[in-house]
Amino acid sequence: MLLVAFAATAFVLALLIARLVVGPSLFGGAQIGMPVIGGPFQLTDHQGRTVTEASFRGRFTLIYFGFTFCPDFCPTSLQIMADALDQIGPAAQRVQPILITVDPERDTVEQLAAYVPSFGPNMIGLTGTMEQISAAARAYRVYFKKADGGSATDYGVDHSSIIYLMGPDGRFITHFTHQATAEQIAAAIKRNL
């Protein structure tokens, strides 16, 4: 039994040493200890163009899942994103702010086109079919559900309120809750630029 425990420990140690020497490629590019957040999606932007996660490669992204009829957290979070980018000045051109709707029934291309400019000229709004939105939300570990009550056109959507900072390679860097300030987000972006 002691021999088996020793062999298992030696094997794990060898893997860890190999990772240090060879790097993340030994594990298929995955970073040990990092959450698996993000992934492939195909959506439509607020100008009617089809985009995928690859459309944003080479740029950092700040991604928020919300909806345009949201009365509180969504506009607040989007404004905090815009303020954070204002605080980092010209370097903000390296960061793409994105709103992915969790209410594709009402958040059409036209609705997003009217809404996202309120949060700066670089904000992009993304929509799609419910299946496309659900797939993107799963990739980012986002919860959303149409709230009970209301009418067919006047309803709320319960959802996670998290801003994701993703790297130019599409990998997760960090996240911010709705309690984060623009200063905290700006500082985190600057550390990673």
Explained architecture:
With 193 residues, the protein is of the alpha+beta class. It has 2 domains: 1-33; 35-192, Glutaredoxin. The chain contains 5 helices and 9 strands; from the N terminus they run H-E-E-E-H-E-H-E-H-E-E-E-E-H. The strands form 2 sheets. A 7-stranded mixed β-sheet has the order 2-1-5-4-3-8-9. Strands 6-7 form a two-stranded antiparallel sheet. Helix 2 crosses helix 5. The N and C termini lie far apart (50 Å).
User: What is the CATH fold-level name of the largest domain?
Assistant: Glutaredoxin
* Continuous helix count: 5
Q: Outline the low-pLDDT stretches.
A: 1-29
Give me the strand/helix succession: HEEEHEHEHEEEEH
Helix content: 25-40%
CATH class of the largest domain: Alpha Beta
Radius of gyration: 20 Å
Q: Find the structural class using helix and strand composition.
A: alpha+beta
Total separate domains: 2
Describe the strand arrangement of the main beta sheet, using strand numbers: 2-1-5-4-3-8-9
pLDDT averaged over residues = 86
Count of beta strands: 9
- Tell me what portion of residues adopts beta-strand conformation: 15-25%
CATH superfamily of the largest domain: Glutaredoxin
Secondary-structure arrangement, i.e. CATH architecture of the largest domain: 3-Layer(aba) Sandwich
Main sheet: strands, sense, barrel: 7 strands, mixed
Distance between the termini: 50 Å
